[in-house]
Each structure stands twice: as structure tokens, then as C-alpha cells.
């Protein structure tokens, strides 16, 4: 992708932060809490990992696939439009394979 993408960082509260050592000792509680709210595991005070419930993961996965398909459709539409407006810019498949 040629455009630079910026990503906003997730917002969370201190109740969602748990140290790696505490998460290891209380993993059952971390998993239980992750079913309703993502849990951010810290290592040396920095967020290192995220535990989230599978239902939330499925939603994220589904939305990502949807956005990828929309982006692919947009790119193809732009290419078709460019070729319709400037047919001479087309490169034959035969020429493309030679390069």
C-alpha cells in the first residue's frame, strides 16, 4: 500500500492492565475478565500482549476481512477506471510475463 497509514492506539483503563507475573499466577481470572473486556499484559511497565475473548476476536477477524474485501474492490475499481480513461496505459499479460 503506497499511502502511509496511522493507527490510533487502543484506550484502556488500569483495571485492564496486569503484569505478566500476576497474569501467569492468575491466568484463569485473566481469561474470565477477557471475555468481557480485553486484558493488557505488561512486561516491565509496557503493554506486551493482549488477551481477549474468542467472540471479540471473531468480530475483529470478520471486520478485518470485510475491510480487506472493500479495499480490494476499491483498488480494482480505480484500476478499471484508469484503464477506461486511458486504454493506452494498459500492459498486455504477455509483456508483463516477460519482465
From TrEMBL:
It comes from the Bacteria. This is Type II toxin-antitoxin system Phd/YefM family antitoxin. Belongs to the phD/YefM antitoxin family.
